[in-house]
Write a structure and sequence with these properties.
The chain has 79 residues and is mainly alpha-helical. Helix 1 links the parallel strand 1 and strand 2.
């Protein structure tokens, strides 16, 4: 299992989850990856909030995500 870590709070949560996963299925290994510094405080909740207010999210997500959000936004207007 690959899990992303942005902060010490994430590490605490993920380490606890890893402990229980290992207890439930011993063959499960968890690998933790640290996020880059510029993405440390990017959360899906904040991205959804920016999308809701039609703000530019391109600084926080890959271009393919921006394109999908724009497509979805365009389709919503037609309904």
């Amino acid at each position: 299992m690959i899990r992303g870590i942005r902060s010490w709070a994430d590490m605490d949560y993920e380490a606890n989850l890893s402990f229980y996963n290992k207890h439930l299925a011993e063959e499960i290994e968890t690998v933790f990856l640290l996020s880059s510094l510029e993405l440390t405080y990017v959360t899906s909740s904040r991205i959804r909030e920016l999308i809701y207010f039609k703000s530019d999210i391109s600084a926080f997500v890959p271009n393919c995500v921006v394109k999908e959000v724009e497509k979805k936004r365009d389709n919503t207007k037609k309904i």
